[in-house]
Amino acid sequence: MFVTLLAQYPIVLIHGFDSSAHYLEYMKEVIQEQIPDATVINCEIGNGRWDSIFMEISQQIKLLAECISENSATQGGYIGVGHSQGGYLMRALLEEYNHKMAPMVRFISLSSPQGGFFCGVKSLCKGNYLPTFVQKLLFYLQYKDFAQSRLSPAQYWRNPYKLKAYAKKARSLPVMDNIRDYNIQRKINFMSVDRVILFGGPLDEVISPWQSAFFGVWKDGTDGSVSLYHDREEYKQDTFGLRSMVEQGKVEFKVEKMFHGDYTTNYKFIAERLTPYLRMN
């Protein structure tokens, strides 16, 4: 019997909101222990924690693209892994850049707000994801140019009570979902990876709703009830390729019983749950 061994692609890691590359060093070490021949690139957005909060999403994506392109090992393709906001950035990079730079061949999202983020009316803003002053700015200025140009979460802040304003004014998520400024290339790019692996779970004390990790959203007019990914119009109309990928069996929804920060610090998760998806064969 012959076994085909596929080349090990480089693995690119990107940190989340109010974070930096430093916080993914442990994950990098565990991956390298498990896959000794893997090149693991731990990218940082600008000045790390500060820029992860106050830099516009489009600029963060550009810097992520530069980090990847600067490493010649990625030219034949790479596996993209993002935690929290980093998973959203990696998805945005996939949609916007995959046709014009070294290609992402697999996308892995670790408890990331793929369906957006909102809390504070019926749902509580938990954890440390949004510092108190950022929460207040978002509530009062969420779709104003000031917030949209200076607070990265504002650009995927999907307020279920103000969906018209969200669709018109939020600078990033409506575009990534292809409900504004539709571009078929985004859909083509999203579908260009071999698999999309999504991790998330109900114990996550940060992402709101937690089902956003699986492209779920708050239902229109409430943050007390959730529409799962397959109930969304974006899915039914296949605006950015999620339905096509699901129907082709290329999306995996992995429900975990972990807190938000555990995805980057839990040895067993990284070694036994994440690492198998970092090997192509």
UniProtKB/TrEMBL annotation:
UniProt-recorded name of the protein: Palmitoyl-protein thioesterase
Lineage: Eukaryota, Metamonada, Diplomonadida, Hexamitidae, Hexamitinae
Gene Ontology, cellular component aspect: lysosome
Gene3D superfamilies for this protein: alpha/beta hydrolase
UniProt keyword terms in alphabetical order: Hydrolase
Recorded GO MF terms: thiolester hydrolase activity
InterPro entries cross-referenced by the UniProt entry: AB_hydrolase_fold
Pfam families, sorted: Palm_thioest (PF02089)
